[in-house]
Automatic annotation (TrEMBL), chain B:
The keyword Transport applies. Keywords: Cytoplasmic vesicle, Golgi apparatus, Membrane, Protein transport, Transport. SUPFAM superfamilies: SNARE-like. It is found in: Cytoplasmic vesicle membrane; Golgi apparatus. The keyword Membrane applies. Part of the AP-3 complex, an adaptor-related complex which is not clathrin-associated. The complex is associated with the Golgi region as well as more peripheral structures. It facilitates the budding of vesicles from the Golgi membrane and may be directly involved in trafficking to lysosomes. In concert with the BLOC-1 complex, AP-3 is required to target cargos into vesicles assembled at cell bodies for delivery into neurites and nerve terminals. This is AP complex subunit sigma. Adaptor protein complex 3 (AP-3) is a heterotetramer composed of two large adaptins (delta-type subunit AP3D1 and beta-type subunit AP3B1 or AP3B2), a medium adaptin (mu-type subunit AP3M1 or AP3M2) and a small adaptin (sigma-type subunit APS1 or AP3S2). Interacts with AGAP1. AP-3 associates with the BLOC-1 complex. Gene3D superfamilies: 3.30.450.60. Belongs to the adaptor complexes small subunit family. One of its GO terms (biological process) is Golgi to vacuole transport.
C-alpha cells in the first residue's frame, strides 16, 4: 500500500497539528520513512521536494544524515530547481568531517565554469560556507577567474568566497591579493564592500600585505568622502545615510592601515574630522558610522584635538536615551581606557551612574569600566560605589564584582586598615563568590600588619558571631582568632565599643563552626587548629579544648581525624612542647615557596607523635583506580586533589617563585603534552635547603581558535613518594593564547627515588570532551637525584 | 564575522537556523535552546545586546537581537562586527523578507523556510555581509523564482 507522500506545506501542517512532542515525532518518523523510500526508488523529478521536507525536519532537530547523498545527486542535476535545494542541503548537512563533502567539488567546479549566473551564485555560496581546505585549493583558480567576470552579482560573491578561502588556506593570499587594487575602482557597492572585506582579511594576516595596501589609503578616503557628501541616495540609503555598511567597513580598514603609521594617519585626519562632525546622529545608521569613526580616530596616530573630540562624542553618548547607544559607548570607552586613561577618567561620574542600570548588559559593561577606572586618587570614592553595587547587583555579576574590588584594593589601598576593612566587607557581602586565594591573601595581609592584629581579630570575631555561613570569612576569622585570641580577650581598642569577650564565648563560637553543617571540611580544619592554638593563648584550663580534640579523634572525615589525633597526642605525650609548636606564626614570605603553615605544624607534631598518617581513602582511591597505578597496590596522593584546596597556597604569586630563594641551577622546563593547540608544560623547582621537596608547576596554554573549558588535571606518583596537588588557578583557558591555567604539585621524595609521573587530563575543546592519560617521559634527573 | 543567525518565535520554536561555523547537530539544537532562554529573559525596553552564552563561541562573541511581533531575530557575532551596524542589518533582512512575501508574518517563514534561506543567502554569505541594497536582492530572488517556475515544477 503506497501512501502518496506529502508536499512540504502539507507536512508542515501536519507537524503543527500534532498536539504533543510524541505525536510530532510520530508524524516525522513516518514521513522520513517515505522520504527514504523515495530517495531509493522514487521519481527523480520529485527528489527536490523530498529533500526540502528533510531540511525542514532537520531544523526541528531530527536526524537527516541519510539525505547527504541526495544533496550530491541534486547538485549534479541540470535543473536549477534541483540545484537550489541540493546546495542548500549541502550547506546545512555536509561539512568537513564527512568524507562525502569532497564529492561535490567536481559539481561545484562545473557550475562555476559553465553555469548560468544564479547557479554560479549557488556554487560560490556553498563553497564559502562549507568549503574545506582541500576544496579551496582545488577551486581557487575557478574563483579567481570569476573575479574578473562582467556580472557584478557573480563578482561580489566570488570576492567573499576568496575571503573564506584565504581563511582556510592562507597561502592563497598570493592569488587574491593582486586583483584587489583594480576592484577598488569599481562603482558597484556590493563589489566595493566585498573588496574592502577582502583587503581587511589580507592585511590582518600578513604585515607585507598591510604595507602593500597602505598605498590605497587615498583611494579609500576618496570613496568614503563621496559616500559622505553625496547626501540622500535612494539606492543605498539607510535612514538617510548613504550605505552605512560600506562606510563602516572602510573606516574599519582605515583603522588597520593607519595604526602606528604617521603618514597614513595624517592623510585621514581631515576626513575623519569631517565624518565625525557631519554625520546625522538622529538615527541608528548614522550612529553606527560615528562610532566606527571614533574607534578609528582613537586607534591611529590622530591629532590631539581629534582625540579629544572623539572621547567627548563618547561621553555625550553615555547620556543618550537610547540604551543601545549607551551600551556601545561603554564598550568603546572600555577599549580606550588603557590608551587614553585620563580622557576617559573625565567621564567617570557618568560611568558610575550607569552601575544603577536595570539592564544587565549595561551594568556589566559599567562594572568593567568602573573597575578599570580605579586609580590611586579615586580609590576610596570608587570603592564606596562599587561596594554599594556589590550589595545589590545581580547574582551573575557578583563574582566579577567581588574579585574586581579585591584586586583594586590590593593595588591602590591607601592604608592597611582600609584594605582589611574592604576585604572584610566583601567577604561579608559576597563571601561565597570570592576566589579561593582571597582567604590566603587576607591572612597574609593581617599577619603582616602587626599594629592591626587586635583590630582585625575583634572585627572578625564580631563578623563571625553574626554569621557563620560565609566560608571564606569563617576561615579567616577562625585563623585570626586562633592566632590572636589573647588580643581578643584583652578588650581594649579605640573606635570599637569595648566589649568584654569571655573565653567561653570564643570557644563556644569555634565549636559552633566545627559542628555546623554549613562548614566545609577545610573550614572545620581551620576551626580545630584555632581551638588548639587557643590552648596556649587563653588563661583558663584546657579541659574544654581537650574534650573537643578527643571527640574529633573519631571523626569520619579523615583530615579532621588526623588533626585531632595528632593534637590529642600533643596534649598527652608532648605537652612540654606544645607552647613552642603553637607559637605565633612568623610572617610567611609572599613569593617564596608557599609553605602551608597548617601542614608544617602538623608535620612536626606527626613526627613527634609517630602516628602513621591515616591513609586517605574515597577520593584518593577513585583517582588511583582511574590512573591505573604505576607501582600496583596503593600509590600516593596525600590529599584528595582539587577537593580540598590547601589553605595558604596563593597560586597567583607562585609565578614569582624563583625570587626567594633562587634555585642553584634551574631545571629545564618540559613540554609534556600537545593536542590541537592545547599545550601542557612542567616547570621544576628544588631548593638546596630542602632537597626532598620538589615543586612542579604545570601550565596549560591554548593557541587554538576554541576555548578550553572544564579543564582538570590529576596526577599520580610511585608509592615511595608523596604528592600533594593544590587548587588550580582556574579551569578555563581562553582561545588564541588566553590566560593559561597554572597548578602546583608538591612532591616529597626523601629517599631520592626515581621520579615517575602519570597525568590525566580532562577538558572540553571544540565542543567535544577530551580525556588524555599518559606517563610523562624524559623527566630530568635533577628533579629527583 | 557572523557566527550564526537564528530566528525563533516567542515559544522558542525555531523558524530559521543558519550556522556559519561548524557545530555538531546536538550542539546546534542546544545553542538554539540556550539562546532562546537568554533572549526571553530580556524586557522589551532594554538594549539589544547580550553577552553570548557558553556554547557558542567564547567571551569574544555576543548576541544581537531584535524582536518583531512573535519572532526573535538573533545574530551571533564576534567583536570585529559593528554592533549598531548589525542592528541595521537585521532590519534590512526583515524588510527584504517583507518585500518578497508582501507583509511577511510568521506563517510565511514557517511554510516557506527554504525561500527564507535563499533570501538570507543574498544578504549574508559565509558569515560576511554580501549585499544590503534591497532592490538588488529582491530582483535576484524574483529572477531565480522565475527560473524555477519555467522549469515546470513549482516549489514542493
Amino acid at each position: 500500500m503506497v501512501v502518496p507522500s506529502l508536499k512540504l506545506q502539507d507536512l508542515i501542517e501536519e507537524i503543527r497539528g500534532a498536539r504533543t512532542q510524541a505525536q510530532e515525532r510520530e508524524v516525522i518518523q513516518k514521513e522520513c520513512a517515505h522520504i527514504r523510500a523515495s530517495f531509493r526508488d522514487g521519481d527523480p523529478m520529485l527528489r527536490h521536494q523530498q529533500l526540502a521536507k528533510l531540511l525542514y525536519v532537520h531544523m526541528l532537530g531530527y536526524p537527516a544524515h541519510f539525505g547527504q547523498m541526495e544533496c550530491l545527486k541534486l547538485i549534479a542535476s541540470s535543473r536549477f530547481t534541483d540545484k537550489r535545494v541540493g546546495y542548500l542541503g549541502a550547506m546545512l548537512l555536509l561539512d568537513e568531517r564527512h568524507d562525502a563533502h569532497l564529492l561535490i567539488t567536481n559539481s561545484i567546479k562545473n557550475d562555476l565554469s559553465q553555469g548560468i549566473q544564479p547557479v554560479q551564485g549557488l556554487a560560490l555560496c556553498t563553497l564559502s560556507t562549507m568549503g574545506s581546505a582541500e576544496m579551496c585549493r582545488d577551486l581557487a583558480t575557478e574563483v579567481e577567474k570569476l573575479l574578473l567576470q562582467p556580472s557584478p552579482y557573480v563578482r561580489k560573491k566570488a570576492i567573499l568566497t576568496a575571503v573564506h578561502m584565504i581563511r582556510k588556506v592562507p597561502e592563497l593570499s598570493n592569488v587574491f591579493l593582486p586583483p584587489c587594487a583594480k576592484l577598488l575602482h569599481e562603482r558597484h557597492h556590493g563589489i566595493l564592500l566585498g573588496t574592502v572585506t577582502l583587503i581587511t582579511e589580507l592585511c590582518e594576516r600578513s604585515p607585507e600585505a598591510l604595507r602593500h595596501f597602505r598605498k590605497v589609503v587615498p583611494q579609500l578616503a576618496q570613496i568614503l568622502q563621496t559616500l559622505v557628501t553625496t547626501g540622500y541616495s535612494t539606492e543605498h540609503s539607510i535612514s538617510g545615510v548613504n550605505d552605512p555598511f560600506l562606510q563602516v567597513q572602510i573606516l574599519h580598514l582605515l583603522r588597520i592601515l593607519g595604526r602606528n603609521h604617521e603618514e597614513s594617519s595624517e592623510t585621514m585626519n581631515d576626513l575623519l574630522a569631517q565624518v565625525a562632525t557631519n554625520t546625522d546622529t538622529s538615527r541608528n545608521a548614522g550612529n553606527a558610522v560615528l562610532f566606527e569613526t571614533v574607534l578609528t580616530i582613537m586607534d591611529i596616530r590622530s591629532t590631539a584635538g581629534l582625540r579629544v573630540l572623539a572621547v567627548n562624542i563618547l561621553g555625550r553618548f553615555l547620556h543618550n536615551s537610547d540604551r543601545n547607544i549607551r551600551y556601545v559607548a561603554l564598550t568603546s570607552l572600555l577599549r580606550l581606557v588603557q590608551s587614553d586613561h585620563s580622557a576617559v577618567q573625565r567621564h567617570r561620574p557618568t560611568v558610575v551612574e550607569c552601575l544603577q542600570e536595570t539592564d544587565a548588559s549595561l551594568s556589566r559593561r559599567a562594572l568593567e569600566l568602573s573597575l578599570a577606572l580605579v586609580n590611586g586618587s579615586n580609590v576610596r570614592a570608587m570603592m564606596q560605589e562599587l561596594q554599594a553595587f556589590l550589595e545589590s547587583c545581580p547574582p551573575d555579576l557578583r563574582a566579577d564584582c567581588a574579585s574586581g574590588i579585591l584586586l583594586a584594593a590590593e593595588r591602590f589601598a591607601p592604608t592597611k586598615r582600609w584594605h582589611i576593612d574592604t576585604i572584610l566587607h566583601v567577604l561579608t557581602t559576597a563571601g561565597t563568590h570570592v576566589r579561593d586565594d582571597a582567604v590566603a591573601n587576607l591572612t597574609q595581609l593581617i599577619g603582616g600588619a602587626q599594629e592591626l592584629h587586635a583590630y582585625s581579630v575583634r572585627r572578625l570575631y564580631n563578623a563571625l558571631a553574626e554569621d557563620i555561613s560565609q566560608q571564606p570569612l569563617v576561615q579567616v576569622a577562625a585563623w585570626c582568632i586562633g592566632e590572636y585570641g589573647d588580643l581578643l580577650l584583652e578588650g581594649n581598642f579605640e573606635e570599637i565599643e569595648p566589649l568584654q569577650v569571655e573565653e567561653e564565648e570564643v570557644l563556644a563560637l569555634l565549636e559552633k563552626v566545627l559542628q555546623s553543617h554549613m562548614s566545609l571540611p577545610a573550614t572545620r580544619g581551620y576551626a580545630l587548629t584555632a581551638l588548639m592554638k587557643l590552648s596556649t593563648r587563653l588563661r583558663g584550663d584546657n579541659n574544654r579544648i581537650r574534650q573537643v580534640v578527643s571527640i574529633y579523634g573519631s571523626c569520619l572525615d579523615m583530615e579532621l581525624q588526623q588533626r585531632a589525633v595528632e593534637y590529642d597526642t600533643l596534649f598527652r605525650k608532648y605537652d612540654h612542647m606544645r607552647a613552642a609548636i603553637l607559637e605565633k606564626m612568623p610572617l610567611v614570605e609572599r613569593g617564596g615557596p608557599q609553605v602551608d603553615e597548617e601542614a608544617k605544624e602538623r608535620k612536626e607534631a606527626a613526627q613527634l607523635s609517630e602516628v602513621a598518617p591515616a591513609p586517605t581513602e574515597s577520593q584518593a582511591s577513585q583517582l588511583l583506580d582511574l590512573l591505573d597505578l604505576l607501582d600496583g597496590a596503593s600509590g600516593n596522593a596525600q590529599h584528595p586533589p582539587l577537593l580540598d584546596p590547601s589553605p595558604g597556597g596563593a597560586l597567583v604569586h607562585l609565578l614569582d617563585l624563583p625570587c626567594a630563594p633562587p634555585p642553584p641551577a634551574p631545571i629545564p622546563d618540559l613540554k609534556v603534552f600537545e593536542r590541537e593547540g592545547v599545550q601542557l608544560n612542567l616547570s621544576f623547582i628544588r631548593s638546596p635547603e630542602n632537597p626532598a621537596l620538589l615543586l612542579i608547576i604545570i601550565t596549560a596554554t591554548n593557541s587554538s581558535e576554541s576555548d578550553v573549558t572544564h579543564f582538570i588535571c590529576q596526577a599520580a606518583v610511585p608509592k615511595s613518594l608523596q604528592l600533594q596537588l593544590q587548587a588550580p588557578s582556574g579551569n578555563t583557558v581562553p582561545a588564541r593564547g588566553g590566560l593559561p591555567i597554572t597548578q602546583l604539585f608538591r612532591i616529597l621524595n626523601p629517599n631520592k627515588a626515581p621520579l615517575r609521573l602519570k597525568l590525566r587530563l580532562t577538558y572540553n575543546h571544540f565542543g567535544q570532551s577530551v580525556q588524555e592519560i599518559f606517563e610523562v617521559n624524559n623527566l630530568p634527573v635533577e628533579s629527583w637525584q | 564575522m557572523i557566527q550564526a543567525i537564528l530566528v525563533f518565535n516567542n515559544h522558542g520554536k525555531p523558524r530559521l537556523v543558519r550556522f556559519y561555523q561548524r557545530f555538531p547537530e546536538e550542539i546546534q539544537q542546544q545553542i538554539v535552546r540556550e539562546t532562546f532562554h537568554l533572549v526571553l529573559k530580556r524586557d522589551d525596553n532594554i538594549c539589544n545586546f547580550l553577552e553570548g552564552g557558553s556554547l557558542i563561541g567564547g567571551s569574544d562573541y555576543k548576541l544581537i537581537y531584535r524582536h518583531y511581533a512573535t519572532l526573535y531575530f538573533v545574530f551571533c557575532v564576534d567583536s570585529s562586527e559593528s554592533e549598531l551596524g548589525i542592528l541595521d542589518l537585521i532590519q534590512v533582512f526583515v524588510e527584504t523578507l517583507d518585500k518578497c512575501f508582501e507583509n511577511v508574518c510568521e506563517l510565511d517563514l514557517i511554510f516557506h523556510m527554504d525561500k527564507v534561506h535563499y533570501i538570507l543567502q543574498e544578504v549574508v554569505m559565509g558569515g560576511m555581509v554580501l549585499e544590503t541594497n534591497m532592490n538588488e536582492i529582491v530582483a535576484q530572488i524574483e529572477a531565480q523564482n522565475r527560473l524555477e517556475k519555467s522549469e515546470g515544477q513549482g516549489l514542493g
